[in-house]
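User: Some background: our group keeps a shared notebook of sequences we're curious about, and every so often someone picks one and asks for a predicted structure to add to the entry. Today it's my turn. The entry only has the sequence so far, pasted here. Could you supply the structure so I can complete it?
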Amino acid sequence: MAVGCASPASGPDAPLEDAVAEEAPVDPTTIRPFEIAVPDAVLEDLRARLARTRLPDQLEGADWDYGTELDYLTEFITYWRDEFDWREQERRLNEFDQFKTVIDDLDIHFIHQRSPEPDAVPLIITHGWPGSIAEFTKIIGPLTDPVAHGGDAEDAFHVVAPSMPGYGFSDKPRSPGFGPEQIAEVNAALMARLGYERYGIQGGDWGSIVSSRHAFNHPEQAIGLHLNMLVGGPPPGGDPTDGVPPEELERSQARRSFYTTAESGYSQIQGTKPQTLGYALNDSPAGQAAWIVEKFRAWCDCNGDPESIFTRDEMLTNITIYWVTQTATSSARLYYESSRAPTSGPMGRIEVPTGAAIFPYELFITPRKWAEASYNITHWTEMPRGGHFAAMEQPELFVEDLRSFFRPLRSGES
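Assistant: Of course. Here's the predicted structure to add to the notebook entry:
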């Protein structure tokens, strides 16, 4: 079995690679079992770097107004260094069936958890930034084995959850121009290689953009598209407010204003100078933690207390994946490819049946009338609570909405 680790002699800064030597050339289309196994040297280097952290000053009474708060981060990275047990989190991640295969000259990592139910519907779920496959650990069990989690066998899915290229344990794109459409094509090729001719598609954050493109480019494969961050503007021509309930318009404007005035700085940096940012994040685990934990706090429905929603271990598992795979820079480049070097063709209205889960603390909330101009909306759920990291924040609501959306679409699908 291939393991996600580097040769011990290669040191802590070497990229994670398969450590098993191949005796003969292997067909790149082979689907190979994969197990996460971070070398001890990488973890020892992480602890040493955390112990040498040089923290900045902070203005008196600044709290989180200027970014990640000093006292919180100090305690957070001390816990990371002294108490966080990566091996336990690694063990939990390895409870899922993981694989790798080469697509478009990139070694793609993915979870492929098949359901015990013979009539389960295949479903590909795509994460975004600053997420990873760790976001889905609470939902894979209920989706694949609903009976074991108090549900009905008829709601079962075979779940495929890839690490996007440049993220986690997947290869990093090596040349410019690898944007959302290219990732969508990787996902489509992955599902075809797994033998799935018809399947559901789900995504949030960048996964929403990728999944929308996937459904648009391959409607004959998609039985349904489910999004937990549906981004869309008003239809062209006419009055954009026409037919939009005032409360929906106000909510959309309020969320967009929150993002633009308080939350878009990271996107501007990653969309213009990802390489410059990468030198800092790839060298400093404290910097990497500060960059991501601030987003957990700001983007979840937690009233400023992320640990009321997530455990430290949950946040640090996600952050540690970025650190040990050295993907701070490669993940940030997706913003550049999308905004500065767009490589996607024009996309019209998506006719695939589309379900939208509207979490009240999502970064962008599109009025339904606007969404209907771009998507064939057949399912719309106004969630009572939750934010950007829906599968982690509100797994029960997330799972039930997926089940409800796909129930009428299952007939005759396999």
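Suggested note for the entry: Confidence is low (pLDDT under 50) at residues 5-10, 17-22. The first strand starts at residue 2 and ends at 4.
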